[in-house]
Amino acid sequence: MLKAGVLGAGHLGKIHLKLLQQSERYDLVGFYDANPEHAAQIEADLGYKYFSDIDELIAACDMIDVVTPTSYHHQSGVKVLEAGKHLFIEKPITVTVEEANELISLSRKRNLKGQVGQVERFNPAFRSVSDRIESPMFIETHRLAEFNPRGTDVSVVLDLMIHDIDAILSVVKSPVKNVSASGVSVISETPDIANARIEFENGCVANLTASRISLKQMRKARFFQKDAYISVDFLTKKVEVVRMKNAPEVPGDFDMILQNAEGIKKQIYFDNPDVADNNAILDELETFADAIENDTRPIVNLEDGTAALDVALKIIKEFKSL
Fold first, then answer.
1. 3-class SS of residue 116
2. What is the mean pLDDT of residues 76-102?
């Protein structure tokens, strides 16, 4: 079992602590938090071992899970990698691309594994169809959330939209050509509502909307490609795959047939895969253990996290130019 430690014991940090303790792949050594009173209370209430010395915790572990506020990601990541430990780090990977590139350079230099917590890649609905998304040419996403003060220290792009940015980059195998966006600050000092358009060199266009002041929750993505429409509901963990194929010579009574202006007939049919239930956070942590033990590429490596951050920052830059 890999010895694991957690930096940061806030809301998400406590979830990671619980799952690492439950996992059969890790031996949870303990945690560090910058607030001693908060940390002592967690140790008393939940029983996790609190390390008041961050270096002592890192030295005792094989892998460190960084769940601190984003502004501390870079310094925490550098400390972990320089100590020769594998790094799991929550999204966004860092504040700047330059900081992220430093983590990549350190991990390569020391031959260490790094993974970014882009948890929607492990959502069972997305995982069930990701291999069926082939050369999409139009993508539309909506990620709406009710207001929660937690996370408003960063733009809604880094808070919410980055999940969809990462998912899109994982299925569109083409460089980004252009980014345009608009955002509005309603309650926070940074934008609470944002819309972005990402154009890829292969002609694919993605239209993304994110809001953290909505009256309802929504996390949906729709992928349109040749002869197929794929809908992913990240919230309800449901998928819908609608495909088209050449219509049979003699359609059945219940076949759905469309005919275009040229007289070509297509049959519409549903090709929905089974969606296996899972705990996405536990899965991302345990697949990272696989990457460490088998010396394979993490599913969302540091380079992936940096690519998502780069696009997110380009979107935010568009806000500032308005």
1. strand
2. 98
Q: What is the pLDDT of residue 236?
A: 96
Q: How far is CA 82 from the centre of its chain?
A: 25
- Is residue 264's pLDDT more than 60? yes
Nearest in space to 181 (alpha carbons), one of 192, 170, 194: 194
| pLDDT on residue 177 | 98
Which helix (DSSP H) or strand (DSSP E) does residue 86 occupy? Answer: strand 86-90
Distance CA 294, CA 288 (A): 10
| CA distance linking residue 238 with residue 246, whole number of Å | 27
> Helix (H, G, I), strand (E, B), or coil: what is residue 82?
helix
Domain assignment of residue 106, given as a range: 2-118+280-299
- What does residue 272 show for φ and ψ, rounded to 5 degrees? -80, 125
Which CATH number is 15's domain given?
Answer: 3.40.50.720
The answer to whether position 213 is within a domain reads no
Q: What are phi and psi of 235, to 5 degrees?
A: -75, -50
What are residue 233's DSSP bridge partners? 220, 238
> In the numeric block, which tokens belong to residue 204?
């694919």
Instruction: Show the tokens assigned to 33.
Output: 């938090």
Answer positive or negative: Cα dihedral of 93, 97, 102, 105.
positive
Report the alpha-carbon distance of residue 79 to residue 72 in Å, rounded: 11
* Residue closest to 90 by CA, chosen among 302, 307, 310, 311: 302
Taking the C-alpha atoms of residue 44 and residue 26, their distance in angstroms, rounded to an integer, is: 22
Instruction: Count how many residues are written for the chain.
Output: 322
- Type of residue numbered 272: N
DSSP assignment of 251-274, as one string? Answer: --TT-EEEE-TT--EEEEEE-PPP
The total of structural domains in the chain comes to 1
Identify which of 118, 139, 133 has the alpha carbon closest to the alpha carbon of residue 171.
133
Q: What is the pLDDT of residues 149-207, one digit of tens each?
A: 665 667 899 999 999 999 999 999 999 999 999 998 888 877 899 999 999 999 999 99
Per the domain annotation, does 205 fall within a domain? no
